[in-house]
């Protein structure tokens, strides 16, 4: 396949890494039995985030232009960036940079978009995480992390308990 052709990989059509000329993109779509407002609160509330994101939490005001960070339970910064767009409870765009793995940090900023759409009896959450370079190790890393995080979120919202244990590592 030439570098200008696209390729998508993923199970069940719900997620995949797309490689196109000059960029790497991970997309994940899930349906969650919740309202857009409840999902927005779950995505932005520190206390709720800690319950599904393996003890990690965000520090942010959730306004366009605000600084953003994702922190390990011990307070170390895992990722940081800026809110590019905040349209509660519909759309959130974060300029995102890994801060704890030098090889991922060296790739620069990525863009993470969370789109929330009401559908009958649920909401559709579409996460798109994009890096402006081909073969991004960062996008490869998040393609393993996002399904776990969002599965935990979905299960927590629908059952009251997270699917996986609350253990964060910096591996």
From TrEMBL:
Residues 34-158 form the Activator of Hsp90 ATPase homologue 1/2-like C-terminal domain. It holds the Pfam family AHSA1. Gene3D superfamilies: 3.30.530.20. SUPFAM superfamilies: Bet v1-like. Belongs to the AHA1 family. This is ATPase. It comes from Paraburkholderia silviterrae.
């Amino acid at each position: 396949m030439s570098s200008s052709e696209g390729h998508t990989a993923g199970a069940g059509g719900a997620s995949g890494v797309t490689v196109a000329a000059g960029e790497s993109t991970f997309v994940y779509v899930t349906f969650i039995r919740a309202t857009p407002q409840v999902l927005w609160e779950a995505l932005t509330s520190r206390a709720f985030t800690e319950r599904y994101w393996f003890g990690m939490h965000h520090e942010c005001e959730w306004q366009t232009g605000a600084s953003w960070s994702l922190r390990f339970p011990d307070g170390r910064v895992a990722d940081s960036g800026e809110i590019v767009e905040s349209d509660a409870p519909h759309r959130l765009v974060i300029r995102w940079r890994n801060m704890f793995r030098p090889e991922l940090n060296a790739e620069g900023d990525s863009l993470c978009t969370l789109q929330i759409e009401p559908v009958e009896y649920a909401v559709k959450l579409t996460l798109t995480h994009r890096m402006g370079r081909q073969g991004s190790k960062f996008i490869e890393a998040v393609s393993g992390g996002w399904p776990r995080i969002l599965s935990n979120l979905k299960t927590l919202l629908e059952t009251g308990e997270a699917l996986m244990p609350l253990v964060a590592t910096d591996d």
